[in-house]
Design goal:
Layout (H helix, E strand, L loop, with lengths): L25 H16 L4 E3 L9 E4 L9 E12 L2 E5 L9 E5 L2 E7 L5 E7 H14 L4 H4 L2 H13 L1
Antiparallel strand pairs: 1-2, 2-3, 3-6, 4-5, 6-7
The structure holds nickel (II) ion.
Length: about 160
């Protein structure tokens, strides 16, 4: 297992739209495992490929933070969103920063597993929030792009002083 280096804002890879993942070989399997290990090591609940410098559409997540309950989500596509709720989020690429973000309460999505099997699932509440945050990463969107103007100014000010 290799711990990966997390890209920190304003690294340009974090603002790129990632490309579909089309191969599921040994190299990708090792990468999924390395990302899971890195996520746990950093106390994160999710980690998207662009955050480790790979501009591909997948993320790992473990909203329960219990080892063994992690999931790998490849090429996700949101089919339906319901409800709206504010909540506090952090991001491993924005260390020390938190922001209030409105997200859908429930999302139904289509995705592929780590072995390329096609699936559909519905997630809600904290899972839905984590999934939407990670899917944003695949589109080059960060937490600071989702908060309101006042919060964004405060966060950027705080960030510059770190
Ligand atoms: Ni993040």
């Amino acid at each position: 297992m290799t711990l990966l280096k997390i890209k920190i804002y304003p690294d340009p890879v974090l603002h790129q739209k990632a490309e579909r993942l089309t191969s599921f070989g040994p190299e990708e399997q090792k990468l999924f495992d390395d990302m899971i290990e890195t996520m746990y090591r950093e106390d994160g609940v999710g980690l998207a490929a662009p955050q480790v410098g790979i501009s591909k559409r997948f993320f790992v997540a473990c909203p329960t933070q219990k080892r063994g309950e992690e999931i790998v989500v490849v090429n996700p596509q949101i089919l339906e969103s319901k409800g709206r709720e504010n909540g506090t989020e952090g991001c491993l690429s924005l260390p020390g920063i938190q922001g209030e973000v409105a997200r859908a309460k429930r999302v139904r999505l289509r995705f592929e597993t780590r072995h390329g099997e096609k699936k559909e699932a519905e997630v809600k509440d904290f899972f839905a929030r984590v999934f939407q945050h990670e899917i944003d990463h695949l589109d080059g969107i960060l937490l600071i792009d989702r908060v309101d103007f006042a919060q964004r100014q405060a966060i950027l000010g705080q960030y510059q002083s770190l």
